[in-house]
Amino acid sequence: MDILLFSNSMLPGASYLAYAQPVINSALRRRRNVVFIPFAGVTTSWDAYSAKVTDALAALDLNIVGLHQQKDPQAAIAQADVVMVGGGNTFALLKACRERGLLEPMRQAVARGALYIGWSAGANLACPTIRTTNDMPIVDPGGLDALNLVPLQINPHFTNALPQGHQGETREQRIRELLAVDPLLEVIGLPEGNWIAVSDGQARLGGANPTLLFRAAQPAVTLANGHRFY
Amino acid sequence: MDILLFSNSMLPGASYLAYAQPVINSALRRRRNVVFIPFAGVTTSWDAYSAKVTDALAALDLNIVGLHQQKDPQAAIAQADVVMVGGGNTFALLKACRERGLLEPMRQAVARGALYIGWSAGANLACPTIRTTNDMPIVDPGGLDALNLVPLQINPHFTNALPQGHQGETREQRIRELLAVDPLLEVIGLPEGNWIAVSDGQARLGGANPTLLFRAAQPAVTLANGHRFY
C-alpha cells in the first residue's frame, strides 16, 4: 500500500500544500488520475476546494476530479490512481464518506495499489478511528471508526503549546485522556510540516519537526526523521 | 430553573474553583445536599476528583457526595438539592451519563428546583448538544444530544488565540464550521473566568472577560457583563 499522511496543508509563509508537493511528487510514480474528496470542507464550497487543490498541485500535471462532481462516486474511486482527501472537519468528512458508502471502496482502492494522500482530517480518516482529531464535533459521524489503512493513530497539527494565560487542556493532556480509556493505543503527535509515508510495506516518518509518540503511563518519546513505524 | 454554567474551573494564579465560589454561594440559597458527577474525569480517579471538589468548596459548608459512590445513582440525583458536574472530557461525561440512564433524572431534578452547576464539560452537558466542546472524541457518546437545560450552545474555554506559528483552525473557524452545517444556531464563546447564570426564568452573563456571540454569516458580537440571553 502507498499512503501519504500529512499533518497539515500549509506552513507559515508558504503556499498551500507547498511542503507536501515534493513528497507527493516522489510517491506518485506514473499515477495521474486523482479523485479528490472535499467533504471535510464545510465553510468553503466543494467546487472551490477542489479548484484550490488543483491549482496548488498544477506543477505535478495531475488529472484531478472532485468526487462530489462524479455521478457514481464509488466507481470513480474504483478507477482512480490516487485517492486524495483534504483537511477541514473530520466529523463532517467521516459522516459524508460513511453515508455515501465510500469507506470500503476507498479501502479497496488502496489495497489494489491506488495512492492515498490525506492531510489533517484526511490523515485522521486513514487511521483506525478519528479519536485523535482536534476538530469540533459539528455532526455525528455515526461511529468513530474510520478507514484503518494504517495501524497508527495520528494526532495532526500536533503542538503542546497553549495560548498564553489559557487554562484549557494541552494537547498532551487530551491524548493522555484517550490513553486512559484505551491504554494499549499508541498515539503519534505529528507536528505541522511532518508526514508519514507508507510504501513497500513500511511506514516512515518524514519532516524535520519533533514528532512525539505517546503511550499510556510512559513519558512521550521523540521520534527522529526517518523513524520506521513498521 | 436555577443553573450555573462556568467556562472553566481555575484561572491563572488562582486556586481550583476560586472564581466560581462566590457565584455558587449566591445561588445556593438553602441548598446543601450536593451530588457531584465526576464522569468527565478520565486521567484522575473519580474518588480523587470528588475529594478535590469537596476540598475546594469546603468554605460553603456543603454535603457533597460523589455519584459514582451511590448504590442508586438515579435516586441520588432525585434527592439532591444540587447537581454538580465537573469538567474533563465531554464525550466521556455524556457517554457515562447516557449509559447509566442519568440524563432524564438530571433534567427532572433541575425541573423540580435542584441547582445545576457545571463547568467546562459540565457546562457543555447542559446545552442542547455537545457540538461546541473542544475535547477529543476519546469515546463515542452514543449521540451528541445532551441535557438541553438551556436553549444556549456554549463553547467553554473560548479563546481565538493560537500558539505562535500554529496553522490549525482558530476557535472561531471551528465554530463557523458548526454554523455552516446548522445556520440557525447561536454559539456563545464563553471565555475562561465567565459564566452564565439562570434564575427566575432569566439567563444572564457573568464575568468581566469579553464573551462573543456567533451567528451564521454575521460578525461575532461582544456581549457585556450582565447581558440577558432570555
From TrEMBL, chains A, B:
Q: Please give the superkingdom of this protein's source.
A: Bacteria
| Record SUPFAM superfamilies | Class I glutamine amidotransferase-like (SSF52317)
EC number of this enzyme: 3.4.13.21
GO CC annotation: cytoplasm
Q: Where in the cell is it found?
A: Cytoplasm
Q: Would you identify the family this protein belongs to, as annotated?
A: Belongs to the peptidase S51 family.
Query: Can you name this protein?
Result: dipeptidase E
